[in-house]
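Chapter review. Work through the record for alpha-1,2-Mannosidase before attempting the end-of-chapter questions.
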Amino acid sequence: MRKLGSPRQDPSAPKHYFIGRSASRARHVKRHDQPHLNALTAAIILFNSISTAAPQWAGFSPMAIFPARRRFVRLALTTVLFLTVYLFFAQPPALHPPPPPPPRGHHHSQEKNHAGAPEKPAYKPTSFDWASRPVAHPLDDSEIGRLPEGEPLALPQIQHAFTTTELTASHNETQRKRREEVRDAARRAWNAYKKHAFGRDELTPLTLSSRDTYAGWGATLVDSLDTLWIMGLKDEFYEAVGMVGKIDWNKPRSNICSLFETNIRFLGGLLSAYDLSGEEVLLRKAKELGDMLLAGFDTSTHMPTNSFDISLARKGRLVPSFSESLAAAGSLSLEFTRLSQLTGDNRYYAAVNHVTRALARAQEKTALPGLWPVFIDLRSPLLTAGNTFSLGASADSAYEYLSKMYILLGGRGDVYEKLHVDAMQAAARYLLFRPMPPPPGKGSSSDSIPLEEVLFTGTAYVSGHTYTLRPEVQHLGCFAGGMFALGGRLFSLPGHVQIGKQIALGCAWAYSRFPTGIMPEVSLLAPCDGAGMSKTVDDDDDDDDDNGAVSKKKNVTSPEDVPKCEWNQAKWEKLLRQQGSSADKDDELRLPKPWTSVKDPQYLLRPEAVESLFILWRVTGDAAMLDRAWEMWQSVKDATEVKDNGAFAAIRDVRIRRGEWQDSMESFWIAETLKYFFLAFSDPDVISLDDYVFNTEAHPFRIPKPRREDGPVKGFENRDRGQETHQQHQQQQHQQQQQQQVM
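Structure tokens for alpha-1,2-Mannosidase:
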């Protein structure tokens, strides 16, 4: 266990620190220097032309009457022309994000670029200026937190230092074909959405209609922006941006929206797309939305209310909830902080910093110290009420954002290091368990994952001074593998990286156990002895902790540390009966061992399992994660693709191989699931974890860097994604149209 004050690994010491980055930087510099080379060539040609023509000019120049000065004047004029041409052509591309948007009312939509290309994406202001709304409950000056001052620190390298040999072995023609297959699926899904639901929240893939589940502002439209950009679907991206520029946040299809969902999907999507493309209209729309969502914090306790009634919010009459999900309250920080960084407006950061302070005060005072209850009372300053603890639904992203805020603040937010480390230590102690291995024989395991290396996250219930860990596995909880691995690398806790790998492998193993090759939304399984038993909260005796989840003192379970756990048929059948299941059901619905119940058999096109595989690949360099991700992709594609229209649909029951679809394609299918699959099969320097930090909706935000490192950023290179500015893209289209006309 690393103490908070102990030294971290020195990121600048080993020479291989920048191996993964250097190749990318070399490619970028080559492209970046091209304007200088072109300018130099043009200047030399002009110089030669002047030199050749000079004798002819002499006969007609007034300088001809001064033979002694003629050569000097000609040389001076040529030098001036040389420098003028060089400076005109040699402007380098910007290395920093564009400046904040101009003041409200400054329109540029009618401006044309110098090549006569079509207009830039239009911007239409929202009909109500939320920034002008009077604040009913202003924060006291003493409570206003400000963005940390000073230059960002050099953070430890998060991504594995890939060698040339590793890259050659893992990213070859096979990975390119895999990536192309995912890109093709994304293109088809987007086209289906554009054809049948463009501008609405979701496509209904079976009826080919639309559904508005998030106030009707176009959740899939905004959520998909950065995916389109990353995959190089530029035409689709700019068409979408044109629609986004016209969104009026003051005209929803529903007067009540979720503050949490609007934040992660809409605000996160806009900020990420801006960070990637630099399109100003996206930041302007993000600022409008941020001003509106800021009203969600205008309550008596300055704590946000997730049920965002737009009419009440305008009047400052929102009331904090007595039972709000931890995720809804604690998953606003990343987006609001990035908005403050990009606009220079501290109000957004101050709002979420108030929530962080409250969480910090409560962390060691809850029923499970180090963790927060799944539901908290936002009217109370302590947030300690509640007896249910989980890393799954309603809690997940609040924990996810702790380490990511440390990254986004450039290592300047020390409170986030303590919050993350303490929470992960407590989660490892109270919330992890091992499954009971199925009996040997046919069907016991469809792959080579050793079960002593598998962990799942469960749900803990506290009564008095005792707690019970329920072995309930949620698909949402699969994200924890990536969270442990990312934080373990960031804070020099290798044991946490190992825990992350075990959770990721656990979800991959769960996928392989069901007929569709996909794990269910919520299920229960037989654990190794320990989980399901009541224990004392403050019990530090490792000998009594036989659930095999994690050693309280060693922080990680390695195979030699794991207590022996064997299949127990009688115990499994007893648990089946307790859960109302039967071992004699029809084979089609029979539960794979060691599962005892499936509470929710759906697959909703979720990303969490592949998300953790992607992060573990980037953090550890273990190429086996790529093959597991590919197996996962094949199963998901086979089970969800609606081949006659290009869309993808959720499935009702993962226990039935060719089961029934549901008329749902949530926006996170394109925003998260397809993006993580695509990035898993892309080169590691594409959207590097050392250059970007993902929000919980898979929207990457650019990480501020020290000036000495703030240069070409991985993910900005014009690679197979073909990322360009809008002007370059329009010029390319214009040239192609001219060529077609000539032909």
